[in-house]
Every structure is written in C-alpha cells, then in structure tokens.
Write a structure and sequence with these properties.
By secondary structure, the protein is mainly β. It is built from 4 helices and 15 strands. It has helices spanning 2-8, 136-143, 145-149, 192-197, and strands spanning 22-33, 39-50, 53-62, 69-76, 86-91, 96-101, 107-112, 119-124, 131-132, 154-160, 165-173, 182-189, 201-206, 212-217, 232-238. Strands 8-7-6-5-4-3-2-1-15-14-13-12-11-10-9 form a 15-stranded mixed beta sheet, with helices on both faces.
Amino acid sequence: MLTAVALALIISCPALGQSQKQVLWNYRGKAIDQQTGELLFTAKFTEKRINGHLESMETQYFDPKTGQKIADRKAVFEQPGSFNPNFVFHNYRTGSMEVVDFSNQNAALYYKKNQGSTAYKKQLTQIPKPIVADAGLVELVLNRWSDLQQGKVVNLQIVVPSRLDYYPFQLCKNKKESNEQTMVIYFTSSNWFIRQLVSPIVLSFDTRSKRLVQYAGTTNLTNENGELIMKALITYQFDN
C-alpha cells in the first residue's frame, strides 16, 4: 500500500525546453449545516496549475471550535487536462483512509473505514470515459463549460473508493437557478430512479472567473460523533 500512496504523490518533471506557466491558488472554505446553520468545519486549499490545468491540490480541514486538523487530502494529476487524479484522503476523527491510484492506467482503490478496521483493496479495469475522481469533477466542468452553458448534459463515471467501485453520474446546468453572474451545476446519478430518491450535489460557479464559489451536498467528512456530514453548504473565499 505504501507504493500506491507514494505513487499518488509523485509529480512528473516537465521536459527540458518546455515553457510552462505555473500558478498557485490559495483559498479557504467554510461549511455550515444546510438546516441549522451550524458551522461544521473550515478548510484551506492550495492548487498548483500549469498552463491552466490543475496539477496538484492539497486540502486541510479543521474543527471550527478547537482549530485542530480533522482531515486532509492530496491529489495529483499525472496527465495534464485529465479528470482522474491520484489522491489520498485521511479522516483523523475516525482513522479512515481513502486512496485512488491511476498510475497503471487502471484504478487501484484502497479503503479503510476506521483505525481498527480491515483495509480493502480493489482493481478496476475498463472504466468508460470520462473517468472522474475527487477534484477532477471541477476540472470536467471547466473542460465542458461551453456545453454546460448551452444546457447539454455531460455524462461521466465517478470513482468512489469508499465503495470500491465506480458509478455513472451526470452534470447539467440548472437554468432556473443560474444567472449572468453564476452558473449552477447539478451533479446527479444517471439512474432516473436514484435521482428521485437522492438530492443532487449543487456546484455554483462564478461565470467571470469560472471558479467554484459554493458547494451544497454530502461530504466525506464526519462530525464529532463519527457520522457522515450529509448536508453541508460550503462557501469559498479566494486569497488570490
């Protein structure tokens, strides 16, 4: 497993002679409960972009009461412009760990539910494209921005390490909630029946900067009692 983790954090060096524009984005997030307004967690994000493509992202999550770090995540995109990074997620409240490694062209998944539980592994092959994992979801929105603005549906396969599997999902613009300043994207299951039972994840983007400004829906973080945070509203504030 250490090999998979190590591979997930490797960033390939650019070839000599290539001119690449590197940009670091630093921003913060604040999550509240959609129903009660209670502050659930805060987060700090650092993105490294090369020629406009996300190369890596590091995220730290904090308890708003104590300031203690409760989780972190690291994602690395081996292929520029791809949507399926290698990533590692640690939840320090429960001891859970999620890893996805795409370095061998397939998806090697690793999941451990808590500190004392058994670790499960699975290799996924022949996943239909586009394959999306973790931070790659936002990158797919940016890649298909024009199509989404026109109201087209974007289909994808989302890799979920906690389920050791992948699932067909789709992205579509909510025309009623979108306006000139904000494009609102619904992330939902491709299965009609499931869509009737499960609320979509809602992503709101600033149409000028094309940055994600708000996220509403389930998370992979847990509260103080170890229960999954299902209805979070996260707003983002950019430092640059």
